[in-house]
Amino acid sequence: MNSDIGINMLAEIGVAERARRIRRTSLRMVHQARMGHPGGDLSCADILAVLYFHVLRLRPDAPGDPARDRFVLSKGHASAALYATLAERGFFPAADLDTYMRPLSRLNGHPDRNKVPGVEANTGPLGHGLPIAVGMATAAKLDSASWRTFVLTGDGELQEGSNWEAAMAAAHLGLANLTVIVDRNRLQQGDRTEKTIALEPLADRWRTFGWGVVEVDGHDVEALAQVLGSLPARAGRPTCVIASTNKGRGVSFIEDRVEWHHRVPTDEELEAALVELEGEE
Amino acid sequence: MSAADCRVAFAETLIALAEQDRRIVAVVNDSVGSSNLKEFKRRFPDRLINVGIAEQNLVGVSAGLASAGKIPFTCGASCFITGRALEQIKADVAYSSHNVKLCGMSSGMAYGELGPTHHSIEDLAWTRAIANMTVIVPADPIETAAVMRAAAAADGPFFLRISRMPVPTVTAGVRPFEIGRAVTLRAGRDVTLVAAGVTVGRALEAAALLASDGVDAAVVNLSTVRPIDRDAIVDAARRGPIVTVEEHTIHGGLGSAVAEVVVTTHPVRMRLLGVPGVFAPTGSSEFLLDHFGITSAGIRSAALELLR
Q1: Distance from B70 to chain A by nearest Cα, in Å?
Q2: Which value does ipTM take for this structure?
Q3: Does the residue A151 lie in any domain?
Q4: What digits encode the pLDDT tens for the residues A213-241?
Q5: What is the residue extent of each domain of chain B?
Q6: Phi first, then psi: what are they for B98, rounded to 5°?
Q7: How far apart are CA A239 and CA A243, in angstroms?
Q8: Which residues of B touch A149 (CB under 8 A)?
């Protein structure tokens, strides 16, 4: 739908640069809070940047606009990445990010829609985002409204059965206005997904549930923009975008290492990470 | 007194509300028949959303519908909607502050012989423990209709406990239902019987028996279990001892809710009638209420013991 807009033409600051900033900011937030989920923050930064700076029709000055596209972060533990994205997009001042997980901060470890402008769902327990998104998409369809619903899930999260209840319902209800993006970084809290409870053949599973399925490099912002600009992938059906990602993407010593699910960088590690994430600042 | 199934009033009121307000939708887990929604489906086919036998999705979808401005009345057997989807009720509905009306149908021991898997004698304990929930147990068809209207008009998460057991009309001519306000159905000076839902009729019968014993028993219909009417309970405690009567485990339900107020304001002796922390044996719903002493005779003896 937006595919006629060249992705780096959208604004002075390109989407890839937005993703780099989201990575730096979220890592700083985790370091400062001494708590968080840096691996998952870094793995979804490009997806969030493409969504918030290219795909989603939103008005940060009117976060409750009924006509807005909805985005649900089902992997709510990637809250630092979400808050960094929302601040970058202008939903609230970037200075607020310093309060991440501090006492009485509105920036809780998992997002709260009643406190944070731009947050659509109170996620945290896994397997909740997709059912909520199915409800949102159903409401839009009932109203013949043109707004769309996007939900980002982790991959390990797909072990929760509630996702498959929702997947069945979305296909049956013909929710072509619904897109799930799977952050397929192949790691979960304890181990690799395929060593825990295997998800493959993941694309086939979504296909047999009646969804249109696209596989894409989840760090290639041009490719993501192309896919998310050509929805639905299959007429009359909800779309599943399996975004192949790398947990901890952008920082060599965090990448693809299971312990960084919720490890906190030391001062030296943060410094080294920010050097790796340096750009045109 | 003739007895009626509250689901009839439930369905009629939901249709009337849906006619007036396009935002109202029904969401079901294949429970179109057991929630008595066939006529709703015929009238509003697009507004009856059946997610199939999938309660986690049922509640999550309802939260999503509410976030987009719909007013979902989400209906399923109370044992499944609460037990199976409690985390969704907590996170997606209550914590998220979504305007979802969860309707736990055929609650308590209404499923009788189907057994403890289908009994819902923990639902009040579970739902009233969750912040931001309003929990209501209507006593008869008149109150069921009033509760539905009040819930539709109020913005916020509700749990409505709707029985299928035939109940007598007990709220005709009394002060109309208001959220959070207990109603005294019978004044009395010696002891107060506090009940909700299917136990209200039995409490009124017990009060009549007690009158023949020379005991003047008040009967309070505590249909809103959360937020509780503290003033009504303190008033009752000032009068004398209290017997609570619930079709629910006595651990964490209506009796516990009353006791929490009593012990922190005006401690008096209490008896908590209900299911005493066991799984029920095989039997009809009526049989099981009798078996556990949730009867006019059982309530009468509890009151007399307290006054002895």
Answers
A1: 7
A2: 0.95
A3: yes
A4: 999 999 999 999 999 999 999 999 999 99
A5: 3-168, 183-307
A6: -90, 145
A7: 12
A8: 64
